[in-house]
Amino acid sequence: GLDVSELRAALDALVAATAAVLPADCRVGAIGIAGMGETGFLVDDELHAPAPAFAWFDPRGAEQAASFSAELRAQFAGRTGLPLGAQVSLAKLAYERQRGVPLERYRWLNVPEFAAAHLGADVAGEYSLASRTGLLDQNSGEPWPLALAEIGVGADFLPPLRWAGSAWGTASALNGPFAGAAVTVAGHDHLVAAEAVGSLHPGRYHVSMGTA
């Protein structure tokens, strides 16, 4: 798993390396952060994490997912749009709960959302990333009570949700060329990459195919 201190160090190193190659009079206007779903941290109010982040392909959680209530298993695909298995964050969270992590003391941030908060922006969730957790009801756009109850947490376990590209505040933890830069969580990496290379156009349907 990815330790939260390792991610913090990597983000700080990236910021420092970027600042070092920018012209002295350069001012960065905005920072957009994209990343994969299904990977994130349990965090407290100071962004301390009691457990590492597991990669989406980590098999831990498969046993717990298979043991979810019959009602949840029957509704899961229809409610979330996802297949139930170890990949979804809900399964990883059930694994953590079983090994003794008190989930009710924390909130969930996907890695790009954590990165935004580390830079000094707001603590908030992004819909496309939240939709990969298994905790979001795709019909209502709200946290799914049955999934939350399965792991013993309330609706505030997910932070307030925003659309990709919305304002996440500013990078208040940074200075130099990044001082005052607007921050946004741009969404899931595949779709952001497709938009960046100009392959998303009105009237087209984009399907994200794994490592493609």
Description:
The protein has 212 residues and is α/β, with parallel strands linked by helices. Helices cover 33% and strands 14% of the residues. It is built from 8 helices and 8 strands, in the order αββαααβαβαββαββα. The protein has helices spanning 4-21, 62-66, 70-80, 89-98, 111-118, 127-130, 145-150, 189-196, and strands spanning 30-35, 40-43, 107-110, 125-126, 136-137, 142-143, 161-162, 182-188. It has a two-stranded parallel sheet with strand order 1-8. Strands 2-3 form a two-stranded antiparallel ribbon. The two termini are 24 Å apart. The mean pLDDT is 93.
Number of strands: 8
- The termini sit apart by 24 Å
Give Rg in angstroms: 18 Å
Average predicted confidence as pLDDT? 93
Estimate the helix proportion, in percent: 25-40%
Overall 3D geometry? globular
Order of helices and strands: HEEHHHEHEHEEHEEH
Mind summarizing the main beta sheet?
2 strands, parallel
> How are the strands of the largest sheet arranged?
1-8
**Structural class of the secondary structure composition?**
alpha/beta
Tally of helical runs: 8
Q: Which segments are poorly predicted (pLDDT under 50) over 5 or more consecutive residues? A: none
Strand content: 5-15%
